[in-house]
Specification:
The chain is mainly β. The chain contains five helices and twelve strands. A six-stranded antiparallel beta barrel has the order 1-2-5-4-3-6. Strands 7-8-11-10-9-12 form a six-stranded antiparallel barrel.
């Protein structure tokens, strides 16, 4: 699990693509502290497993399904990515609970500055937009943000100066693809409501049964 609070921006050193998958080496610093093989690092919001590392970088493998459902297929040498290590028991939960299993992607529609903040509008497919609520939480490329506007086609977030400095979101361009993970609570509720409770089977034991067998 993650919090959506980005620890640092990493830089892609190399990408070796297979037929549908990829092996990626990412240069980093902070997330390498006490790193171990098998650790999880959210990369642009996608939970990836560390398969190798050295003093200034870590390696990870991206499977075909992840390549299809995320923007990691667009990575190349020099790409900047948001990085966050998995949440430790006892850490402050400053963002919101993020699984690192994204729901899909959206497309940046525009950026608009308002005083010290930047509004980012993202066009989102209906299957994701239905879970997005005003003032709810969403992870965009792994960044925990609050939804400040939502309608039938887009949602908007407002980026403060700290988020601008510490993440890659405002470095992107109109038309760029971003990874989205909605708050999982809505998905759980939908899943529960999709099941119709089965009618309780009628018991074969009634007064006639008891009379017939000498119990009353």
């Amino acid at each position: 699990m993650f919090t959506g609070l980005i620890e640092e921006i990493g830089v892609v050193h190399s990408v070796v693509k297979g037929t549908k998958s990829a092996s990626v080496v990412i240069k980093a610093k902070k997330v390498l502290e006490n790193i171990k093989l098998g650790d999880s690092i959210a990369t642009n919001g996608v939970c990836l497993t560390v398969t190798g590392f050295n003093s200034d970088s870590f390696q990870t493998n991206i499977m075909a399904e992840t390549m299809r459902k995320s923007n990691l297929d667009n990575l190349s040498h020099g790409s900047r990515v948001n990085l966050e290590r998995a949440l430790r028991i006892g850490d402050r939960l400053g963002g919101h609970i993020v699984s690192g299993h994204i729901d899909g992607t959206g497309i940046i529609k525009d950026f608009k500055r308002e005083d010290n903040a930047i509004w980012v509008s993202i066009v989102t497919p209906p299957n994701i937009l239905k879970y997005i609520i005003y003032k709810g939480s969403i992870a965009i490329d792994g960044i925990s943000l609050t939804v400040a506007y939502v309608d039938d086609e887009i949602f908007k977030v407002s980026i403060i100066p700290h988020t601008k400095r510490e993440t890659t979101l405002v470095e992107k361009s109109v038309g760029d693809e971003v990874n989205l993970e909605v708050d999982m609570v809505g998905k759980y509720i939908e899943r529960f409501l999709s099941f119709k409770e089965e009618a309780t089977p009628k018991s074969a034991i009634d007064m006639d049964f008891l009379n017939k067998h000498g119990f009353v």
